[in-house]
Design goal:
This protein is an alpha+beta fold. It has 5 helices and 9 strands; from the N terminus they run E-E-H-H-E-H-E-E-E-E-H-E-H-E. The strands form 3 sheets. A 4-stranded mixed sheet has the order 2-1-8-9, with no helix packed on it. It has a 3-stranded antiparallel sheet with strand order 3-4-7. Helix 5 (190-202) links the parallel strand 8 and strand 9. Helix 4 (167-177) packs across helix 5.
């Protein structure tokens, strides 16, 4: 994942490896090698060092735990034992069949849930979104983007019961710690940006600028995926 710091034009590469079911060291190494082969280099990263390391997320767990504690103290998050099946069951058609179902406010626990927790433990934790608030941002490629909290997305995970932070929390925390001012990533993450804006705000962090690129797809228009054993870029 490429990030940049405007001051001095510093390009930062960060390895995001918190999904233990899919992330392997060889995949991370191959991703960097592919980008190097395409002529891209960076000023800070796992293989280049820098003043904001480590640049591998699995080595930054203390940062995420500190952020969890801050969000917990502010009352923004709560423990949740609801499953995807529970969420789908609480929704009416056609939303129940969505690939990314919106977590409904009716499934939120009481306000006191998890109030006395001091660590995440083996539980899922969700960020309570401000229902009805419009989250807007200007994307460098896709233009003005607008998502409505509670309608386009609901309460989302910030910590998983497997002991790791969610993607949404981890990238926002790292962007703040690494002083990132510009983010470049795929257009499949446009909605995620709206969620992350809420985290940046809750942590008192600067919201960076965003540029969402077109996805690299195969000959049939499907996005490349490790789970589908897609070829590496150099093999395309």
């Amino acid at each position: 994942m490429d990030r940049a710091r405007k001051a001095g034009g510093v390009l930062v590469y960060r390895t995001e490896d918190l999904d233990q079911s899919r992330c392997r060291a060889e995949y991370a190494d191959a991703a960097m090698q592919d980008l190097h082969d395409f002529g891209l280099s960076w000023d800070e990263g796992p293989d280049a060092g820098g003043h904001h390391g480590p640049y591998v997320q699995s080595e930054r767990m203390n940062h995420y735990l500190d952020a969890w504690k801050k969000l917990h103290a502010s009352g923004r998050i709560y423990p949740c034992q609801k499953t995807r099946k529970d969420v789908r069951g609480a929704l009416s058609a056609p939303h129940a069949e969505d690939s990314d179902p919106v977590f409904p406010s009716t499934l939120r626990p009481s306000e006191d849930a998890g109030k006395d927790a001091s660590v995440p433990d083996s539980m899922n934790w969700r960020f309570q979104v401000p229902d009805g608030r419009a989250l807007s941002f200007e994307d460098g490629r896709c233009g003005t983007q607008r998502f409505l909290a509670g309608q386009d997305f609901g309460d989302f995970l910030v910590w998983r019961k497997d002991g790791f932070p969610s993607y949404e929390l981890a990238v926002a925390v790292d962007d703040a710690a690494m002083e990132i001012t510009e983010v470049v990533r795929g257009e499949d993450l446009l909605k995620s940006t709206a969620r992350q804006i809420l985290i940046y705000e809750a942590l008192g962090a600067q919201v960076p600028d965003f540029y969402h690129c077109e996805l690299v797809v195969d000959a049939e228009g499907r996005r490349l995926s490790k789970r589908d054993e897609a070829p590496r870029l150099r093999e395309g």
